[in-house]
Amino acid sequence: MIVKKLVEKIEGEAELDFTFNKGSIEDVKIGFGFYRGIEEILVGKAPRDALVITPRVCGICNHAHLLAAVGAIEDGYRHAGIKVELSKKAQRIREFTLACELIQNHVKWLYFTILPTLEKLTGEESGENHMLKASYVASTMTKAMAIFSGQWPHSSYAVPGGVTCDPTYVDVMRATALVDETVRFFEQVMVGIPMDRYLQIDSVSSLYEVQGDIGRLLHLLGTYGMARKGRSHDRFIVFGEGLGFVSGKSIVTTVSGVDTRYIKEAIQEGTTAKAVTYKKRLYETGPLARGMVAKTPIFKSLHKRYKDGMLTRIFARLHEIGLLLEQSRRLLRKLDVSQPSCTLESRLMASSFEGVGVVEAARGSLIHKTRVQDRRISRYEIIVPTQWNLSHGNDRERGVAVEAMIGSMSIEEASFIFRSFDVCSVCTTQ
Amino acid sequence: MKKGVEKRKRADKPKLLWLQSITCNGNTHSFLNHPDLFSILSRFELVHHPILDTTYTIEDLIAYRIPCDVLIVEGAYIQTGMAKGGVEVSSLIAHYGTSAKYIITAGTCATFGGIFKQKDPDRISGLAFDGEETTERYEDFRDKLVSLLGCPIHPKWLGYVLMMIADGREMPLDAMHRPQELYGITVHTGCSRNEYFEWKVDAKGFGVKEGCLFYELGCQGPYTHGSCNRILWNDISSKTVAGTPCFGCTEPDFPKTTLFESETRMGIPARMPLGVPRRAYLTATGVAKSFKIKRLEERVIDYDR
Questions:
Q1: How far apart are CA A3 and CA A23, in angstroms?
Q2: CATH code, B185-298
Q3: Which of A317, B24, B131, B146 has minimal CB crowding within 10 Å?
Q4: Do A49 and B255 count as a contact with CB atoms less than 8 A apart?
Q5: Chain B residues within 8 A of A58 when measuring between CB atoms
Q6: Which domains does chain A have, with CATH numbers?
């Protein structure tokens, strides 16, 4: 029996076709909407136009697209023999603005998606205005970011050789105060304990210390038997670096190196989303992958108990909020505004080159590849995190999210598992 | 509040429906940054929205079961091929647009076609405009149409329109249905680099707070409609303040190409500031350039002194 379900209030919508066998789900087809063709739109444009066009792939992770796009151009310049060396200041500002975007994303996911869905699923509705919390934190962090990036969404402030802004210490102080405000919210509302104590949590046995909204969420997952559900291939991949992230792949718990050359994209039947594999195998990307590849103690401990189930996956994304807030403070503290913002002349460019840019976006590794001939883009490729997590799979195995939903007895529960991947349909149908 | 009273109160509020077509969700996320989001929304009944909690579901939306007084459309228009649960968004717009008293096209895609139009220029457009031209739907909707430009829209621009509607005030609109209060000025108005524009001092590359971005670095602020430097982004900054050129994202021809370079003819900007005759511009430039203002050629802060 096939049951169709339209999943809404994710980034866009997705249509899931569930195949039931004797009451449990044995297959899921994931369909996404309209293919918008950003890659094709870029062909024939000037290389730097990608810094304006590609953020428009996605309203929530637009900044990650900007940074992947500028990374691809800088990589291409280097291959063409141009020396590209960013100042520490430019690197730190880029990292900081990316951290802000990741934090706003994760907080929105918690309050718009995960907590309300789990409350409905379990009937334990708190009656609290989760939307208010999400918009408060998200607008505070995007304001901190806009001090450097000019605006969010859709900034184009990262250019080859650095950033366009030239902040003063008044700006840095303002950004610091906004991050501090978010830290206070995190401590008082989200985890209920001071940041330094929170960051010391390194095992399942100390996880009970977490209170606040995240503590309640973990408690609900445990009480309603969701903690071990949603397991998938237990295979993870990370391509980006920075902000404490480490690149590599993790199979069960063995970590090894990766190279973007082994990534393959394939067209899938019945959806506008392309599937992506690494050496023909499917991998999960995103916060859980980042935790597993970096061998963060809390994830080693969680994985030992719950494997790659819901509790581990959901906590991985929320834990990043704490880690990234701490990183944000560190980056601002170390910022020396007397260094140059941009080290390349604005007119300097290579006329033909090929480059790859990699960034850890909220949902995982984001890759841009640009090919330029005679000062015009001749080919542009974007591989988004959701392509890793939400593909149908290949002839050897099922897709990561599909595998996680198999065996569930209800559409409501399976849709919740689906949402635990932080689905973004607009990126997938770029 | 008693249930009956609450129900009646809700019934009195205009019903606000946010409908997405071919989009990146950027306008949705931009609006979520509005510091007065919940005060504004408290004046409406939010019947459906892509992210926020609403009275109706997407199943209700595609079954045409939702009442609608104010329709916000986000994303570019296409007749067929953009569907939700098998229902074309064009049909949803036709249905809800007919009952609505106001239609707000939120963003450059929804209004003119924007970036996504470039994928298939013959089939993809804005709702009532295709670039500068009106579409066949224009006549049906012209009496209720408000065009909000920007890629994305500024949260306060939409906040302004919604509150004007909620308060029952008249909004002066221009020929393209843009609120004059928001788009009657240019992005150049209020830019922190205006002094450099006046004296024709260009920025020496990216990453410096000194200099104007209009001459070399592609800034379209002087001829782009918008209040980005009057109503700051995220209540704190703007592209040009942060050293990024204005890309003209509120205009019907957005996006043009070679966005980080200024088009010039014989060393003179190819496009003049809005409404300024070339001769007037050249005269003013000639005067300004005949003086060298030392202060404007120097850095504001000398860190290495």
A1: 12
A2: 4.10.480.10
A3: B131
A4: yes
A5: 24-26
A6: 2-422 (1.10.645.10)
